[in-house]
Amino acid sequence: MEIRSDIEIAQSTELKPIEEIAKAVGIERKDLELYGNYKAKINYNILNDMKDRKDGKLILVTAINPTPAGEGKTTTTVGLGDALHKIGRKVMIALREPSLGPVFGVKGGAAGGGYAQVVPMEDINLHFTGDMHAVGAANNLLAAMLDNHIYQGNALGIDPRRITWKRCMDMNDRQLRFIVDGLNGKANGSPREDGFDITVASEIMAILCLSRDLDHLKEKLKNIVVGYTYDDKPVTAGQLNAEGALTALLKDALKPNLVQTLEHTPAFVHGGPFANIAHGCNSIMATKMALKLADYVVTEAGFGADLGAEKFMDIKCRIAGLKPSAVVIVATVRALKHHGGAAKAELSVENLDALEKGLPNMLRHIENVTVKFGVPAVVAINRFPTDTENELKLIAEKCRQYGANVALSEVWAKGGEGGIELANEVIRLIETGANNFKYINQDDAMLRVKIETIVKEVYGGDGVDFAPAAMKEIEKLETLGFGKLPVCMAKTQYSFSDDPKKLGWPKGFRVAVRNVKVSAGAGFVIAITGEIMTMPGLPKVPSAEKIDVDSAGRISGLF
Length: 559
Hints:
This protein is an alpha/beta fold. 35% of the residues lie in helices and 19% in strands. The protein is globular.
């Protein structure tokens, strides 16, 4: 059997015109803004027309802590959507947009894989409809207006040493993490320390994804804190009169992007915040629109359930008033063996001992979802040909002890047909499972308590060690009235702890919070732990080295 790459599979598939995909879920031509034949933005005003419709069921796909062995969360999300479609359910998929940083860095693409992909995958992985550019342009316009205000006399009394707003670009570039700008004389600005974040980790991206409509977007942009004055007062984008221009740059980016899967299931791909830094979920606009258009909506949250799912529940659901009906936790036998200490080169060999040692990572995620958040869950084993029956049986037994069933997923190789077992289990959970959804944190808890609660209840840590600078910032933010905001943890994705080398279900650890920062516009406070970076770097051999294009414009190397 010939094994084809993801991009070869995608390029060999005949797509339907996007008007036809839209029509299948009741979107009229007048509400489509076409970007070629296979992509469209949807007029967000249709939400007003559908406000009296009953919402569909929301299914969240999350995963164990990621490993080099791979888990296939997006692939499973797409395949589950196709499987629900195949068994006759009216379904939509809601995903994030890939960032160019990981596309050219480690991943080489993030539109699913095999026969479970959203397409056109080259467009989605590259420039798509320009949303990333709009976010970066808005972010950097605010940075330019801030520095210009200081240059033109600094009427607000902004302390250049206490500017918190960074520039951004959608690329992994460690060289830009810490820079000095404004050099070479007065005409070129005021010299100061500066730096870049990756676009998807920016507050503008989080705001775009957490805005309910255009007016809400403008209000959130107005509330962005860019720095502090000499007398310790916060300075906002509203004080710089920037919110109108920022909204103008983002007004089209706020409209959800409609595409399709290889099996022509409708899919929104909109927004792209990182889950190890920001909240890691697609936009509220796309999710709410999908819930009005379909009976089932399959969405995903980034990285493991300790990051993306926790933030989906505690931040996105809180702000948007959403309630998940079921959760799918994706795992692979290979990844679980890696968590159990097996070497990467030996992951294809049956190793029940390593699997047993790695299983607690998955079991902790099940406990968090079903007990801490109170939502019914199923474990989807993304099956590899090397998985043995003994290994699969062991996983199923352990999961049942934790109150979660297991469904095999073979969507990479078979598309929707390979996800029917999973789809049926998800429907069973929605119809018969006990759903007692609740948040981990309460609004009126102190910021320090919220951080400690996440560490103890979700990560299983013993406590938190706050750096003096972090404690000082927490006290200041509570004095300024930001204490009611939810907390967004910036933490390594590879471990429950803040140490990426502590795999499985580590015990007896404490989490170090080195800094705290308010994202007042987005509506949360970021707690920065361990060595997490807001601007990633490229690996030793980046995926960019394998990506090419021929004389006919046909791209290769995306996977």
